[in-house]
Amino acid sequence: MTQLVVVCGLPGTGKTTLAQALAARWHWPCFSKDATCKEPLYELLGGSTLEESRRLGSVAIQMLLRMVEMQLRYGVSCIVEAPFQYSEDGVRFAQWAEEYGVAITCVVCTVDEEERLRRFRSRTRHPAHHDADRTPHAAHAVPYHSFPGELIWLDTAQPLEDVIGAVERQVSR
User: Fold this and answer.
1) 3-168: CATH, from 1.50.10.10, 3.40.50.300, 3.30.559.70, 3.40.50.2300
2) Where are the domains of the chain?
3) pTM of the prediction?
4) What is the C-alpha to C-alpha distance for residues 167 and 173, in angstroms, rounded to an integer?
């Protein structure tokens, strides 16, 4: 059965680190809103402002979803990583489960707020994000509970190998 592992959570919770580690271990394609879409678009289109970054972020999420859907249509298991903070995202995942017979596991990355903000402020990211011009998103309620499939909440303050192990115990490959 085709699998989709959705790695989501607020900025600074370790989504990208976890998604990349799973992809390397499982040899699955991994699609990231930032690395796969937003950052290359920013470079190719010559982006330079925070407003352009925001606009490209919206385009990037649509591109990301189209690329993932194409993989699922052809029966390719994959990992997708982005904040996915809207209930519409869950609706789309449910449609894919129905249309393509995909088993979905949503991994919600969490960490205490102090650590999340420390990570956000200390990381070095691509210039497309304009992190120096942004304030970190405040922790808020996100409708992950409405996402389809298995829902795994993981505290990414644990060692990465422990976090990977927790996911591997839930995802049948």
Assistant:
1) 3.40.50.300
2) 3-168
3) 0.92
4) 11
